[in-house]
Amino acid sequence: MTTQKKGMEVVKDLDLERYMGRWYEIASFPSIFQPKNGVDPRATYPLNPDGTVHVLNETWNGGKRAFIQGSAYKTDPKSDEAKFKVKFYVPPFLPIIPVTGDYWVLYIDPDYQHAVIGQPSRSYLWILSRTAHVEKTAEQEARISEEAKVFGTVAHVHPAPDDTKGIWWFKSMFGK
């Protein structure tokens, strides 16, 4: 007997301006594109004048900042679905090879404080929050967990590592 995966529902009518800003990775399916020993991963999304989104992904490894910059754009500008393509260039210090991926907003809470991001292959999943450490209500946790189950088992979701040696935001003020 085979089990059928639930279809992926994408957020409709995402308010892109409200979505912009800084997001912290709370948990994810480990990605081969993210540094293995990075702590306190976060993403910052400012809106560009042309309607695309600037993407800055950051993490820290051994006290040193690692980052990559790219851009995101709606897959179909006429659609009400929150389906985006994100494009990075590798290596980041010599941007010659574009790497694109899907960035689908699967869940956003009404206050735009928590989000679940995935893509159609279900290989990657990110649970994001506006704060670095989340104290969720049982209702929020259940809703986020339910959205993550679209990907199959949530056993693959790993909490984002955090820096236990200091206050990350203090370090970030000095670009570290």
Task: Give a description of the structure.
This protein is 11% helix and 38% strand. It is mostly beta strands. The chain has a single domain (16-165), classed as Calycin beta-barrel core domain (Lipocalin), CATH 2.40.128.20. Strands 1-2-3-4-5-6-7-8 form an eight-stranded antiparallel barrel. Strand 5 and strand 6 (97-108) form a beta hairpin. The protein is globular. This is Lipocalin/cytosolic fatty-acid binding domain-containing protein. It comes from Brassica oleracea var. oleracea.
List the helices and strands and how they pair.
Elements: H1 16-19, E1 21-28, E2 39-45, E3 53-61, E4 64-74, E5 83-90, E6 97-108, E7 114-118, E8 125-129, H2 138-148, E9 158-159, H3 168-172
Antiparallel strand pairs: 1-2, 1-8, 1-9, 2-3, 3-4, 4-5, 5-6, 6-7, 7-8
